[in-house]
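Please review this one:
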Amino acid sequence: MSQAARSSTAQTYAVVIGLEVHLQLRTRSKIFSDCPADYHGADPNTFTDPLTLGLPGTLPTLNREAVELGIMFGLGLNCDVSGFTQFHRKNYFYPDAPKNFQLSQYDRPIARDGHLDIAGTRIRIKRAHLEDDAGKLMHPAYAPYSLLDLNRAGSPLIEMVTEADITNAEQARAFLETVQAIAQALGVSDATPEEGKMRCDVNLSIHRPGEPWGTKCEVKNLNSFRSVERAIQYETARQARVLDGGGRITQDTLGWDEGGGKTFLMRTKEGEADYRYFPEPDLPPLDITPEWIERVRARMPELPAQKLERYLAAGVRESDAEMLSLNVEQSRFYDEALKAGAEAQPLDAQKLANWLLTDVAGALASSEQSLRQSSLQPAHLASLVRLIDAGTISGKIAKELLPEVLAGHDPARLVQERGLSVVTDTDAIDAAIDAAMSNDPATVEKVRGGNAKAINALFGPVMKAMGGQAKPEVVRERLTHKLGL
């Protein structure tokens, strides 16, 4: 949808959006059995057990680590996690759920009444609850059958539900990026949409300003932030077209066609009564005590919001500080480099951020690598920045060394072995200046005739003659002196 179309829709209707986010928790075993949970890359249906298969007589046993990760995530979302929590059976038939019910939480979720502040707007979090995941259906192209893989069935999930406080696609994406950063920083989930470890459902309705909210539709199982943005934009425009044409929005569950860029009807929306919730008879309620909460809180690492405050206090500009705070891999590397660089004396935090977010990130993107995949050492990047800061090498030399530094080489040793230190010997620089002036007398006359900017035509050849190793400030100072300026 074009920007003009979105703008026209926004002028006519107000958009109301709530998100449901599913995160697969990072535990060794599944949530209600000791079946291993790390099934990624395994053959289909090899990570199952009697409980996963829904065999008669099997009983669930709650995974304590899943509960504690749920408590930790709730604390990261500023939720209340105290008191009783309980599991219910959510009854429905799906072919990828052999038990014919899901073990989930209903009126006593593990976390409730939280919030996140996104660009000055508070997004309230209604609840976050634990549940087990279903299996996965695969539909081969043109085949008259579907395939069922139950490796994922029984994996621990936490589902977070927001209040309808989101008003546009961009805000929704920013919220999801923050949730992902919190989950990864805390280690509660890999939160990787591309691996299915973070999925999102969008509930969306529109109404004319001043009128009651419209009927909402739910777009299910969006597995990328880009898909969330596109689905919100499309569904907003679709509902506007229906209402403008005199039609009525029905409460439906929709799918998202990524290739076609549009939603499609999956089924009419179930109501809460359709699920026939009742307490799970084989799992007693849990009492989350203040002492338990404090033990979990003591395990919590620094959150993205805390990192942001620390980076800003260190002098990193806001846009870079935000980027670092939301990227766990980059922030961890940055902190290690900052610490390594400070062993001699404090390193310029902004200059280090510039190199990591621009030069290093660009080089890694070109080679289709991540920081983790590269051999770059935090101490080596700190050393490279310090060499520039101290005037030992020029920025040009540093950029030339970067590929080798990314391959794991120590820049200080490279500079020493190759004699790459910046030349400050004025005799050598003066000789290069004399040669440049002799080769270009016309430019010399321009400069001496009052065209001061023409000095740059001499500066370049001098730096080239010095192999880029002359200190630029010294070259400019000696040029100015020799030209009588």
The chain has 16 helices and 15 strands. The mean pLDDT is 91. The longest strand covers residues 121-132. The two ends are 59 Å apart (CA to CA).
